[in-house]
Amino acid sequence: MKKQHILLAVAVTAIWGLNFSIIKIGLKSVDPFILAGIRFALCALPAVFFLKRPQVPWKYTVGYGLVFGVGLWGMVNLGIEAGLSSGIASLLLQFSAFLTILLGAVVFRESLSRFQYLGIAVALTGLFSITFVTDGTVTVAGVALVLFGAVAWSVANVIMKKAAPKETLAFMVWSSLFSPIPLFLLDLAVNGTTGYAELQDQIGWTAVLSILFQAYPNTVLGYAVWNWLLREYPVSTVAPLSLLVPVFGVLGSVLIFDEPLPPLKLVAGALIVTGLVIGLYGRRLTEAPAAARLLSASRTR
Questions:
Q1: Is the peptide bond before 46 cis (omega within 30 degrees of 0)?
Q2: For the segment 252-283, what is each residue's pLDDT rounded down to a tens digit?
């Protein structure tokens, strides 16, 4: 992987990690569903008028928009508003990797390795440890909502795999078209007209910048670049870099909101990340030394 492309991938993970703190800034003045609804409206418009509709069945385009926009980011917004810190939210959302593996085992009949089972066990230990954090940055409701978002992300990944769009940017834009209206209706059902009546007074320049960051650098640009990298390089080369997302997520929360990092939180985070590494790359990490020994032995003969 070229050096400039590695830096590009790291920049995307930094944007994705920082996005959780940017969401929290926007939530200080705008309702969670409205914030997500405006974000995806900007992702879709006006780009949808300039990008040809991707050649995939409508059920995948609509389904991805609903699951990714409403099920994932609508719930993450609610979870952060419910008291979960942006750093912990970025960490918990990585459980989608394991949930995608489990869902893939059901949908695509993929078998699970012993490393994946071990990784899940280690990560769940970290999740259990987080529930004992008492510094005010973790709430049961917040954890539940973000984990629901992780489930939605795993479903979205399966939809993406089934759709297999060649035009990934167009797919993201067109699917975003189906997120705003359900999000706006959900806010109307939950909060009535209050959020809309007060929106004009609430949406200051910080909220505007928050929404613009979520829509363009984070969603449109971030996913376009990442999907391009996945086309240019093997998935095994690009995917591990996504583990930097919670690192930047926690770092952003510490710098912007002065989030405390007691030992228990660090241990819980380390267990979750370690579980991810074991589950996703354990087999490769153990096979690499063995392959190197065989290669070395063959050269000495």
A1: yes
A2: 999 999 988 888 888 888 888 888 788 777 77
| Amino acid identity for residue 7 in this structure | L
**Sign of the torsion formed by the C-alpha atoms of 188, 192, 193 and 198:** negative
Total count of domains within the chain: 1
Over residues 39-57, the mean pLDDT reads 94
> Within 140-261, where are the H helices?
140-163, 168-176, 180-191, 194-197, 199-202, 205-213, 222-232, 235-238, 244-257
Tokens 């999907």 appear where? 227
| Contact criterion met (CB below 8 Å) for 31 and 77 | no
CA neighbor of 155 nearest in space, from 29, 60, 26, 57: 60
Nearest to residue 167, comparing CAs of 50, 30, 38, 13? 50
Number of other residues whose CB lies within 10 A of the CB of residue 176: 26
Are the C-beta atoms of 57 and 70 separated by less than 8 Å? no
- pLDDT for position 260: 86
Q: Give the DSSP H/E element, type plus range, for residue 42.
A: helix 32-44
pLDDT, residue 15, reads 95
Residue 131 DSSP label: T
- DSSP 3-state of 157: helix
- The per-residue pLDDT for 166 is 84
3-state percent breakdown (helix, strand, coil) of the chain, nearest 5? 80, 0, 20
The distance from CA 95 to its chain's CA centroid, rounded to whole angstroms, is 9
285 is written with which tokens? 């990490």
Residues 6+ apart with CB under 8 A from 4: none
Q: Containing domain of residue 64, as a range?
A: 3-300
Query: 32-44 vs 180-191: helix axis angle to the nearest 10?
Result: 160
pTM tops 0.70, yes or no: yes
